[in-house]
Amino acid sequence: MNQPSNLTNRKRTFIFINLILTCIALTMLSTALTTALPAIVADLQISVTTGQWLTSGYSLAMAIVMPLTAFLMNRVPTKKLYLSALVIALIGMVLCALAPNFPIMMMSRILQAIGNGILISMAQVILLTIYPMDRIGAIMGWYGLSITAAPVIAPTLAGMIVDKLNWHAIFYIVGAIVFVSLIWALNVFEDVLDVAKKKFDLLSFLLSAVTFGGFTLGFGNLGTYGFASLPVLGALLVGLIGGILFTHRQMKAAVPFLDLRVLKTKEYALSVFGSILLYLVLMGSSMLMPLYVQSILGKSATISGLVVLPGSLVSAFLSPIAGRIYDKVGIRILTIIGGSSLVLSNIGMFFIHIHTGIWMAVCLNILRCAATGCLLMPFVTWGNKNIPPELTAHGTALLTSLRTVAGAIGTAVFVGIMNTVARNSHTLTGSAALLHGMNVSFLVMTVASGLLLFTGLFLIKDSRTEVLIEVEN
């Protein structure tokens, strides 16, 4: 295997660009479907509820496969695993483009989720491995820019493609990009991650699937069925039981499937806690902002997109800058700045009323997205920097999995709060009641944002010469 120190700068750059190209293509596909969904529903002659499974089923499959990536990265040579994930995703895209009915379309989306889940975790671990620590913040910042900017432009591009061509063309175009990445990877990729012969723990994998899948499905069902329902409580209970059994098994195992002992490292645990809070607020507000513009203000979907676009661009722009700041001064100042931005943004949305100008929502959304740009990738970098290198794959897989579940929770809970408050309002009706519910949701987000700010002010202690902390056996 080629060690990172033996890689030339040219080889590192080619691997980096290939990873960015792949992640941009797959990240675009994850959001492009929201625009194309009405056309797919009409073409396949299915209901909107059934069609939503093309996105919720995708998220569920991602949540299940992500914990598996730690084992795969430690067991399968880097190049072989990367190429295999690309092929799986590419097959899914081709099948989606040709899908004559919903079952084939759904199966194809699951294949895409499997490939994407592996590739997202791999990209972060590979970058953390092949670049020196004094450059990793900037590199992860540029990586963050790619995965932040792609979802912003994807819905617009998808709409243009559907209008000019058809929804099948989306998968053909993205598939062509992935195919180019695959051919290029054959020539530039190297085996940069250490591997060892490890026995596959099937029971642990099944328990992790039950845990992360149960929580994702349970919270995903919240908007459709309500909290006090079997599809929600049943799935959450199954996820909770699975989580208890999974944790017990990993803590007792000599060679864990997913090494949870990384959480014994304070810095890593704080990075996970911060990432969870960030994703709770990020995904919740990302869902509420379009509802505010369209359902409460009565504006068009185009206006809604224009309202959130400046913030998304600011987030993408700040990501590489935040990476360089992290390299120079550490994570604490970024957490304080990001936490403050979130608090100000959410408290501002709490005070918004029906006559507030739409420009205020644009400004507050820019503040929210600035926090994302400041913290999304630096948390990943900082957390993994403080665990032993051989556990980086486990640390990345665990953080990514928990972040995915946190996003599902944020989306479901904050929309649920808005609807519950609006429904139980006795003095307000219609848009006014919905706005009141949204205000309360953003007030709760302010509390979560305050916890993030508190973490930066009082719990995180930066050190320019951070030492790897050994995880207790």
Automatic annotation (TrEMBL):
Keywords: Cell membrane, Membrane, Transmembrane, Transmembrane helix, Transport. The chain crosses the membrane at residues 15-41, 53-74, 81-104, 110-130, 142-161, 167-188, 200-219, 225-247, 268-289, 301-321, 333-352, 358-380, 401-422, 442-460. It is found in: Cell membrane. CDD domains: MFS_LmrB_MDR_like (cd17503). Residues 11-464 form the Major facilitator superfamily (MFS) profile domain. It is a multi-pass membrane protein. One of its GO terms (molecular function) is transmembrane transporter activity. GO terms for cellular component: plasma membrane. Belongs to the major facilitator superfamily. EmrB family. This is Major facilitator superfamily (MFS) profile domain-containing protein.
